[in-house]
Design goal:
Elements (H helix, E strand, L loop, with lengths): L15 H18 L29 E5 L5 E3 L2 E3 L1 H14 L4 E6 L5 H13 L5 E4 L8
Parallel strand pairs: 1-4, 4-5
Antiparallel strand pairs: 1-2, 2-3
Helix pairs in contact: 2-3
Length: about 140
């Protein structure tokens, strides 16, 4: 009887450099194909309007005042008091006489808060444009 002696196989080696290359390619692929969606800082339920229209892309962006349902004011996504809001409107209107103001109020926000913003805009002599953010009604 003749026995064959098997040669010992070397253990397979994992090539780390090749794995790193594959991971980098996957990472680049995911970065390129991922879409980045801007989420608003404030979650407001905007009122519905059948006349809602999109703002023009070539227009100068307005100064945005947001009002939460509890009546808190936000100016450019930062919480402010009414006095801070008034002083900022006056200073910005002095710098830019064609300043546009946009009010982004929750549908449950107190109407009195919206009136305060409108009064402050009139005191600051903002006459060119004051608009309200709304959303389109759902399509059935």
């Amino acid at each position: 009887m003749h026995f064959y002696v098997r040669k010992r196989r070397t253990t397979p080696a994992v090539i780390i450099v090749a794995l790193i290359d594959v991971l980098i390619v996957l990472l680049i692929f995911l970065m390129v194909t991922t879409t980045f969606k801007q989420q608003p800082a404030l979650r407001l339920a905007l009122p519905v309007s059948t006349q809602a229209k999109k703002a023009g892309a070539n227009e100068a962006p307005p100064l945005v005042v947001s009002i939460e349902s509890n009546g808190v004011f936000y100016l450019e996504k930062l919480p402010v008091t009414f006095e801070q809001l008034k002083s900022r409107l006056v200073s910005d209107a002095a710098k830019n006489p064609k300043l546009k103001l946009a009010v982004r109020a929750d549908e449950n926000a107190p109407v009195g808060r919206m009136v305060q913003v409108m009064d402050a805009a009139k005191e600051a002599h903002i006459k060119s444009s004051i608009s309200l953010f709304t959303r389109e009604p759902p399509h059935h």
